[in-house]
Amino acid sequence: MKILNRIKKAQEILEKYKADAYIVTSSDYHQSEYIDIYFKGREYLSDFTGSAGTLVIFKDEACLWTDGRYHIQAEKQLAGSGIKLFKQGNIGVPSYKEYILSKLKENSKLGIDTKIVTYSDVNEIVSQKKLKIVDFDLLAEVWEDRKSLPNGKIFILEDKYSGKSYNDKIQELRDIISSKNADYNIVTTLDDIAWIYNFRGEDIKNNPVALSFTIISKDKSVLYIDNSKLDKKCNKYFKDNKIEIKEYFMFFEDIKKLKGNILVDFNKISYGVFEAISKNEIISSMNPSTYLKSHKNEIEIKNTKEIHIQDGVAVVKFMYWLKNNYKKEKITEYSAEQKIDSLRKKIEGFIDLSFNSISAFGANAAMMHYKSNKENEVQIKDGVYLLDSGGTYLKGTTDITRTFFLGKVARQKRVDNTLVLKGMLALTRAKFLFGATGTNLDILARQFLWNVGIDYKCGTGHGVGHVLNVHEGPHGIRMQYNPQRLENGMIVTNEPGAYIQNSHGIRIENELLVRECCETEHGKFMEFETITYAPIDLDGIVKSLLTKEEKKQLNLYHKEVFEKLSPYLTKKEIEFLKEYTKEI
Fold first, then answer.
1. Which end of the chain is more exposed for a tag (fewer CB within 10 A), N or C?
2. SS in 3 state form for 45-97?
């Protein structure tokens, strides 16, 4: 009833502005994947809590689109709301843009908050049908007791962690901007801005960024950020580096005054930003900072490898605790989540979790982004338990998934796990010609699941930021076409899975570093180096399904895991790790 009333109120606001439809995205002014509660209007209006999804409110209905990670979750959370669910990615399901175009007539009015919805999304709609854009913030009029914008402090990330100073980065950026014949580069994405200026913030949970914009020209850098976020050290840093500081919302006024060639990423700027600069010559291209940020320097790589060891130690301690205690005491999904989180918080340089830990037992693990519930705790018993978790530290960001098999587990679940493992191992040992993208390699991870008619409705891997967002582009490994080739110094996850509704969910995830392998008369070849260290649960493996090559590969990996982690464990934990890294 609560959601029905909110949708009805939203539809009344549409009438007020004479709008025929309104788009509510899952983003903020910066097209962030994860957002502060201030921007969670789609969640407020629908009760769907997934990180990705688009709600479109029409005069006569409300519809929500979300991807395969959230199909099961959305079905449950939208039940009884009256909101129609569109499972994007499924055959025959129109995108929200296609549906809007099918519903609205020429000259209809489409409502949006132009500071949020991207130019590329709006342009894709209006270029196909003549629609009038009506700019208003629906949430400001519907959302009761809406919180204010976040106002966390920032801190400067020292060069010993970033590996490259602001001055080195800005010179590199200006060289690229100049080579593209641009006078300005407008950057609105928060992780890019944090990377450029070597600061980190706390405005978005699990993402060490701060609400900000920047305009970079050949001789000037202007950072738009609320001054209350800055302490004396930050102010001195910006002054010493000749970085001009202006108030956050001054950005929207200043961009109207720009004259010249402006470099922007159409996929990353809002429709409002585009409108403000549209009289200029606009160069649409990936922000140079996005490309440079994805290539980790040697100091970042060294730090990342070191922190992965400490992070792996936490995972082993958790595994030891779980395996030895789940029958002795009541361990729930929520208490297990609290346990792994507490172990990470003890690691030197801990900043935050890199995302909300996914602690899921049994059928709950079939929901890829499941969230455990303190009020409705699910006990972990004999069966399959999935833990996807990670941390952000001064030395780097981690993301690891392990699936644990407890007690007697049906053979089919162990078969599914082994097929996932075979795909993970196949992708890990890939050697590929320079120029290949993650799209070229994706089938290596899916092949064994596809052979038995199983698929997972998500990508196989994503880039990982350095002391930044756990999801980072432009590279990744997924079926959908991605033109970005995999290059030296990039970090990408390798996380195939099997999700069987009402039964179980399995995922095994390591992070991989892209490295140059060799060069022959046929060209330069690349390979992966695994930088995640934690045992893969041997209790869930059907050994007869593994080839000799796969067993050797797993044994070598487990040998490295034992060598790197055992010095940091107690005697009992060492014996436990020895058992779970033994040769098979």
1. N
2. HHCCCCCCCEEEEECCCEEEEECHHHHHHHHHHHCCCCCEEEECCCCCCCCHH
Q: Is the pLDDT of residue 1 over 90?
A: no
Whole-angstrom distance, CA of residue 187 vs CA of residue 212: 9
Residue 369 has pLDDT above 90, yes or no: no
Sign of CA dihedral 538, 415, 511, 395: negative
Dist. CA 451–CA 456, nearest whole Å: 13
What integer pLDDT is reported at residue 435 of this predicted model? 98
Arithmetic mean of pLDDT over the chain: 97
Burial of 548 (0-12, 13-18, 19+ CB in 10 A): exposed
Phi/psi at 28 (5° precision): -130, -160
> How many Å apart are CA 144 and CA 516, to the nearest integer?
54
Q: Give tens-digit pLDDT for 89-110.
A: 899 999 999 999 999 999 999 9
Q: Read off φ and ψ for residue 95, nearest 5 degrees.
A: -75, 165
- pLDDT given at position 69: 87
Helix, strand, coil fractions of the chain, as percent rounded to 5: 40, 25, 40
CA distances from 86 to 105, 122, 207 (A): 21, 20, 29
483: preceding bond cis by omega (within 30 degrees): no
Q: What is the distance between the alpha carbons of residues 78 and 70, in angstroms, rounded to a whole number? A: 11
Closest CA to 478 of 427, 546, 422: 427
pTM beyond cutoff 0.90: yes
Q: Which two tokens stand for residue 484?
A: 């970005």
CA distance 482 to 474: 8
Q: What is the DSSP string of 132-160?
A: EEEE--HHHHH-TTPPPPP----EE--HH
Q: Which amino acid is at 550?
A: E
3-state secondary structure string across 435-477: CCEHHHHHHHHHHHHHCCCCCCCCCCEEECCCCCCCCEEEEEE
Confidence of residue 376 (pLDDT cuts 50, 70, 90): confident
Buried b vs exposed e over 73-88: b needs ≥16 C-beta within 10 Å? bbeebbeebebebbbb
Distances (CA, A) of 29 to 91, 146, 175, 331: 32, 16, 27, 40
Q: Is there a contact between 277 and 259 (Cβ–Cβ < 8 Å)? A: no
188-219 pLDDT, tens digit each:
999 999 999 999 999 999 999 999 999 999 99
CA atoms within 13 A on the CB side of 220: 9
- Report how far residue 176's alpha carbon sits from residue 285's, in angstroms, rounded to the nearest whole number: 11
The DSSP annotation for 349-410 comes to: TEEEESS--EEEEGGGGGSTT----STT--B--SEEEEEEE-EEETTEE--EEEEEEESS--
Instruction: Output the furthest CA–CA distance in the chain (Å, rounded).
Output: 73
| Helix (H/G/I), strand (E/B), else coil: 170 | helix
| Average pLDDT of the segment spanning 48-69 | 94
| Separation of alpha carbons 457 and 95, rounded Å | 16
493: helix, strand or coil: strand
Q: Which two tokens stand for residue 209?
A: 């960024």
